[in-house]
Amino acid sequence: MNVCLAPCPVVFDLDGTLIDSAPDIQACVNAVLTDIGAVPLDLNEVRGFVGEGVETLWRKVVAARRLDDARMSDLVRAFMALYEHAHDRTTVFPEVSETLETLAGRGHPLGICTNKPLSVTHAALAHAGLAHLFDCLIGGDSTPFRKPHPLPLRRALERLGADPRRPHAIYVGDSEFDAACAASLGVPFLLYAQGYRRSGASEMVHAAAFDDFSHLPALVEAHGQREGLSAAWS
Questions:
Q1: Helix (H) and strand (E) counts in the chain
Q2: Which pathway does the record list (predicted)?
Q3: What pLDDT score does 5 carry?
Q4: pLDDT at position 227, please?
Q5: What is the per-residue pLDDT across 103-158, written as a single tens digit (0 to 9) for each?
Q6: Got the DSSP string for 7-69?
């Protein structure tokens, strides 16, 4: 049986995967905390709180600084007013731009599936000069659920043309939430080992791990072909 497979969609997480945004998030969090007279957080604390969306970030900040839960909505509102425009400290991880250009040039539809609010996602990608490379963006407020629920990733894959019943696609991320999200859809997960994860790589389900984005195209081709052939023969 000869099978000709189109290049599979590749969907990426954003924070901790393509961009190092924790310094800007820390600056915005600490500006709000300073304004109310609370002790600022260090970068490692903030990095450990990132990944589940703005509300969860602030639930963890409130718990860490023993603030009144009733202040949550005001704190989130003040944070978002800053976060919408916070890009000066954010950097793109090495080789990301070149790798995305390579994958797009090979015909892979590219998407983003992040728990970051969609408006901030658009702004971050535009600032990083990456926006033109993506055919689909799913943010933390694009669906009723956030990762690790499978709906955001499923929505991204559907928009990129993958079969929702058995998607031939790849998800690239850095965290436990990304790994669980990919596993729930049966999609190979490629782990960026230099990101914001809390646990060891061995504790996360992943098809392969990498710490240099220049290695990603070869991993995409290997695991994309393997998954596609499996689906074709089933």
A1: 9, 8
A2: Organic acid metabolism; glycolate biosynthesis; glycolate from 2-phosphoglycolate: step 1/1
A3: 65
A4: 59
A5: 999 999 999 999 999 999 999 999 999 999 999 999 999 999 999 999 999 999 99
A6: PPPEEE--BTTTEE-HHHHHHHHHHHHHHTTPPPPPHHHHHHHTTS-HHHHHHHHHHHTT--G
How far apart (Å, rounded) are the C-alpha atoms in residues 189 and 85? 31
- How many structural domains are present in the chain? 2
- With H, G, I as helix, E, B as strand and everything else as coil, classify residue 186: coil
Q: State the catalytic residue, choosing from 13, 15, 24, 174.
A: 13
- Residue 172 near residue 13 (C-beta atoms within 8 A): yes
233: exposed, middle or buried (Cβ count in 10 Å: 0-12, 13-18, 19+): exposed
Q: Is the Cβ–Cβ distance between 205 and 185 less than 8 Å?
A: no
Exposed/middle/buried for residue 69 (C-beta within 10 Å: 0-12, 13-18, 19+):
exposed
Which one-letter amino acid corresponds to residue 153? L
Q: pTM of the prediction?
A: 0.91
Q: What is the extent of the structural domain holding 130?
A: 10-20+90-233
Whether residue 68 lies in the annotated active site: no
